[in-house]
Design goal:
By secondary structure, the protein is of the alpha+beta class. 58% of the residues lie in helices and 13% in strands. It has 2 domains: 250 residues, CorA soluble domain-like (Beta Polymerase, domain 2, 2-Layer Sandwich), CATH 3.30.460; 60 residues, no CATH class. It contains 8 helices and 6 strands. It has a 6-stranded mixed β-sheet with strand order 1-2-6-5-4-3, sandwiched between helices. β4 and β5 form a beta hairpin. It starts with a strand and ends with a helix. The mean pLDDT is 80.
Length: 318
């Protein structure tokens, strides 16, 4: 699907037929959403540049993600998707900064794009050129990453309240699962921010960003990405600490349970010995013929069980 945004217009052009498509002269944004090969060919013919394929966008080498070709700057960033879910996704999106319109190639629908379209609908004259649109779109992406990170912080703080509430470790399996999901979100945010930081540094030397306003905007975006990355690192440290604490508390409770069984085994050992002695089938056992034999054996078993418990209590082992 090809979507085109023209300068000063209040609506985004709907999908067009690539066979007859002609780029409007005032286009500032060409958005390729899950494009077919025919749509890619139409854009390539109109702009005189190549459109990266989905396989090329998925490559991890820096040289394959950020480069210049035919006077255009290509930058592929990993954008966090479904940020409101516990485990968000992450997908590559390619930005092509040209002397004319900005070209974006994507196979997902991240929220920043919908936010940008909504912003342009309210302010049609916000972006008059492709580079301006690129900077504003990047700002929207960074803002969205900040929102996702804020949500992760809230979830991690909520988990910390349960971990250190002082109660028993009931439900810790669910809490550890939540910590694992928060760690996955944290890792994907870091992956996205690292890619964006590289893009800001690379685009900063583009001749289309030589105005003072554009360079100031890029520096601001770079600082925002750096500060968010530092905050994300602190969240990662908090997640690791809470995970270690949760596992430690589980081990402590398991040790307490084993201690109880050990104490019970020691406490019941002397009564078991007494019962075993008087359970032997020997004919000559004087106590068997005495009327006080049975009560004495019961008292001896009770006392022999209480004495170890009293000793453990005195030592502070209980």
């Amino acid at each position: 699907m090809i979507r085109v945004w023209c300068a000063g217009r209040s609506a985004c052009e709907q999908p067009v037929d690539p066979a007859v498509w002609v780029m409007p002269p005032d286009a500032v944004w060409i958005d390729l959403v899950q494009p077919t090969r025919e749509e890619e060919n139409a854009v390539e013919k109109a702009l005189g540049l190549s459109v990266p394929t989905r396989e090329e966008m998925a490559e991890l080498e820096a040289s394959s993600r950020i480069y210049r070709e035919n006077g255009a700057t290509y930058a592929t960033a990993d954008i966090v998707t479904h940020g409101d879910e516990e485990i968000p996704g992450i997908q590559p999106v390619t930005f092509v900064v040209t002397a004319g319109p900005l070209v974006t190639v994507r196979y997902v629908d991240p929220k920043p794009f919908a936010m940008m379209v909504d912003k342009l609908s309210r302010e049609p004259h916000l972006c008059a050129t492709g580079p301006e649109l690129f900077l504003n779109l990047m700002e929207t992406i960074v803002d969205r990453v900040s929102d996702i990170l804020s949500g992760t912080v809230v979830r991690v703080e909520g988990i910390a309240g349960h971990v250190f509430s002082g109660g028993k470790t009931v439900g810790f399996e669910r809490l550890i699962t939540k910590l694992g999901r928060a760690q996955m979100t944290n890792a994907r945010i870091e992956q996205s921010l690292a890619g964006l930081a590289r893009i800001f540094a690379f685009v900063g030397i583009d001749e289309r960003m030589d105005s003072d306003e554009a360079r100031a905007h890029l520096r601001s975006l770079a600082r925002d990405a750096e500060s968010l990355s530092a905050h994300n690192h602190s969240v990662a440290a908090s997640i690791n600490f809470q995970l270690s604490a949760a596992l430690g508390l589980i081990n402590i409770e398991q040790s307490s349970i084993i201690k109880i069984f050990s104490v019970a085994a020691v406490a019941f050992l002397p009564p078991t010995l007494i019962a075993s002695i008087y359970g032997m089938n020997f004919h000559f056992m004087p106590e068997l013929s005495q009327p006080w034999g049975y009560p004495l054996a019961v008292v001896a078993m009770v006392v022999s069980a209480l004495l170890p418990l009293a000793w453990f209590k005195r030592k502070g082992w209980l």
